[in-house]
Amino acid sequence: MATVSNRKLAVVTGASSGIGYALAEQCVKNGFDVMICADSERLETARQRLETSGAQVYAVLEDLSTPEGVERLYQRIVDTGRHVDALLLNAGVGLGGAFLDTPLDRELRMIALNCGHTVHLAKRVLSDMVAMHSGRVLITGSIAGTAPTPFQAIYGATKAFVYSFGEALREELEGTGVTVTTLEDAQRGSGDAASQVAEDGFQAMLAGKASVFAGSFANGVKGALPEVVSEYAHETKPGASKR
């Protein structure tokens, strides 16, 4: 049964810890109720901590690497009877190692979670947002998706996918009242605190920006450089057309 609330509603996936939890914190600090989802025993602790802000917090324990898990999450959204004002697609996992040495089952699950849940839940929620002419979407990417990543080949490819997907959606939704922002996070070991990355991403989402390289200035430069090099290489090829 739906509960009456004057606050907006945000849905955050992968929200039991790390950047996902920090994004949920940003939501409640900025006046949102939140629905958080993860496949982790830490989800209940996250719910309790977020509720201390006075926000209404829905916790949904589901494995979003499966279509059934995504559908059950969407049904929970529908059951609230509330419009989703912000959809933060953050759930994801990583896996390092040489491609020939890494387990196939873990790679397929990574593709299903990082890419599959992003597409699946966006397909369900975006239709509702467009019908209301209002909504903000944030997709957590990575600078690993801006250039080839040896020894993280599948992870980097999944992040390249979500970046391309987010950019395409943004163009398709222009003029609908719904915006899509891609959060380009630093690779592991960058030293950027999850809270700062989340704040950068959340504020960019509220402002309706296309993308943000979150965290330190160095992260932004590191993330932007491959795109600059790629564009320069294209422009300088013999016969390349200017765009």
Number of domains: 1
Shape: globular
Cα-to-Cα separation, first versus last residue: 52 Å
The counted number of beta strands is: 7
Poorly predicted runs: 187-191, 217-243
CATH architecture: 3-Layer(aba) Sandwich
Q: CATH homologous superfamily, by name?
A: NAD(P)-binding Rossmann-like Domain
Q: Assess the beta-strand content as a share of residues.
A: 15-25%
Let me know the largest β-sheet: 7 strands, parallel
Class by SSE composition: alpha/beta
Order of helices and strands: EHEHEHEHEHEHEH
- What is the residue-averaged pLDDT? 87
Task: Describe what this molecule looks like in 3D.
Mean pLDDT is 87; it is low at 187-191 and 217-243. This protein has a single domain (8-236), classed as Rossmann fold (3-Layer(aba) Sandwich). It has a 7-stranded parallel beta sheet with strand order 3-2-1-4-5-6-7, with helices on both faces. It is 48% helix and 17% strand. It is an alpha/beta fold and 243 residues long. It is globular.
Provide tags for this entry.
seven-stranded parallel β-sheet, Rossmann fold, 243 residues, alpha/beta, 48% helix
Q: What's a concise summary of this model?
A:
This protein has 243 residues and is an alpha/beta fold. The chain has helices spanning 18-29, 43-51, 67-80, 104-132, 153-172, 194-206, 217-236; strands at residues 8-13, 32-38, 57-61, 86-89, 135-142, 178-185, 211-213.
